[in-house]
Design brief:
Helices cover 32% and strands 22% of the residues. With 470 residues, the chain is of the alpha/beta class.
């Protein structure tokens, strides 16, 4: 039994450490901060001199000379955050790319353009990336592949589609530049993907977490493939129970990742210790030499302590042509210092399974529900393949919630009524709200291959949105 197999089976066999850059990965935290500050200082100076968007934004916050920002602490205390609304307003005032990208547009360099999915109804953001910056993105992804035991020449299937969006294209860049042979199979249907999996017997699959669940659910072979070294999940919020279930179904270690279009990379990864165990989730280490990640209390702006929830605020240290400086991600997660993990790396980060959208919280019957909690519970039930929560306003004006549950095989559930009642009771205990449970046949629920969107809110008023921002 290999160390990975032992870990999946709950064993404690020692995990061999896989280092990409021993100097950084064995450094102490103070050395890491000093490295970050030296890169940040240069980034701030260049941005102040060439980027009108940021200069104006900072001036409005009372900064009249960037030289006054002379430490990481001063940076956190004085440089204002930026977020989607600023980017969209900038694009509207200076279409199509905004003043943020004026410098790079005039420089004559070619650049990649990534578009956000824009599902929150606030417009789609555009983010650019120059060739030099893509070198940085490739360097960041190298940690993900190295930590999962990939070696150049390994074959990987990429199940995400290549589109205007960043998800898929960045993973493709990262994997090819690491030296993997990458087959982009995102545009094929799931049966064709499973055929290609059997034909090529790749060392890894790069995709989204929910899609691995989908592939396993429709595959006639269990596990769906043999010879895999790693599944690279991520791309959406998912709970630890779900990761553990995918590892068991595939008999392959799953590695999680966190990133965004705004950062134009994934920059937090599971190390060789993986996603962790029940009761002690693993962590995603931020690649600190390239990205400065703050996890703050949105009320006070202070950095939270190890083990506390906070909102992720990002600064890319290597995007010097198309900067991203103190961007509020509206993602909430549990922060951990590097020492939380047994690997001993100085890279801090976030807890596996703890990420949720700060604006995704739903208020149902007066109770705040994080979609993550429902995901965690329902995907922890092995019979369940997919689900959809439907909220409406009932005849009395009160909230009514129905959870449509799609089992993997309806026939395998002997007593549907008892099963539904059991799900209903577990859900009530977990989130404190009674839902109607409806079992629906396999294949009837929509499946998202990019970001799972499992809540359909059609109530007369949307209490959830305002409640979340209170
Ligand atoms: Zn670690």
């Amino acid at each position: 039994m290999s160390a990975d197999e032992s870990r999946i089976a709950g064993g404690t066999r020692a995990v061999e450490q896989r280092l990409l850059n021993a100097e950084w990965e064995r450094a102490d935290v103070a050395t890491m901060r000093a490295l970050q500050w030296s890169k940040l200082k240069a980034l701030l100076e260049k941005t102040w001199s060439v980027n009108e968007f940021y200069r104006e934004h900072w001036r409005q916050a009372g900064i009249d000379d960037i030289a006054g920002i002379d430490s990481l602490e001063a940076f956190r205390a004085r440089v204002p955050t930026v977020e989607k609304k600023h980017f969209v307003a900038d694009q509207d005032s200076c279409p199509p790319f905004g003043k943020r990208l004026e410098y790079v547009r005039k420089s004559g360099k070619h650049f990649q353009v990534f578009m956000t999915s824009g599902t929150t109804g606030q417009g789609q953001e555009l983010h650019g990336e120059t060739p030099e910056e893509q070198d940085g993105t490739a360097a960041v992804y190298a940690f993900m592949h190295c930590w999962a035991g990939m070696v150049p020449g390994d074959h990987a299937l990429l199940t995400m589609s290549l589109t205007m969006m960043a998800g898929g294209r960045l993973e493709y860049l990262g994997a090819t530049r690491y030296g993997l042979t990458v087959s982009p199979i995102g545009n094929y249907d799931v049966q064709r993907k499973l055929e290609l999996l059997k034909r090529f017997k790749p060392a890894a699959i790069i995709g989204t977490t929910s899609y691995f669940g989908h592939m396993a659910a429709v595959s006639t072979d269990h596990p769906p493939a043999t010879g895999l070294k790693a599944l690279f999940g991520g791309g959406e919020g998912a709970g630890l129970a779900w990761y553990k279930r995918i590892e068991a179904e595939w008999r392959t270690p799953i590695y999680d990742r966190y990133g965004s279009t705004q950062s134009r990379n994934d920059h937090m990864f599971s190390c060789e210790h993986g996603v962790g165990e029940d009761g002690r989730p693993g962590m995603l280490h931020n690649i600190e030499p390239y990205v400065l990640a703050e996890v703050i209390d949105p009320e006070t702006g202070n950095h939270v302590k190890d083990g506390e929830h906070g909102e992720i605020v990002l600064t890319c240290l290597y995007h010097t042509d198309t900067p991203l400086i103190r961007c509020r991600m509206r993602d909430v997660a549990i922060y951990h210092e590097g020492r939380y993990c047994r690997c001993g790396r100085p890279f801090g980060g976030i807890e596996v399974g703890s990420v949720s959208r700060s604006d995704d919280m739903h208020r149902v019957k007066g109770v705040n529900i994080w979609p993550q909690a429902v995901d965690d519970l329902l995907f922890g039930i092995p019979e369940i393949d997919e689900y959809l929560v439907h909220l409406v306003t009932g005849a009395t004006g009160a909230d009514e919630g129905t959870v449509r549950v799609m089992p993997k095989e309806t026939a395998a559930i002997a007593d549907a009524g008892a099963f539904a009642e059991q799900v209903r009771e577990q859900l009530r205990r977990r989130v404190g709200v009674r839902f109607n449970i409806e079992l629906v046949p396999q294949g009837t629920l929509p499946r998202s291959e990019y970001k799972a969107r499992r809540w359909k809110d059609e109530r007369a008023y949307k209490a959830g949105t305002t409640a979340a921002k209170k």
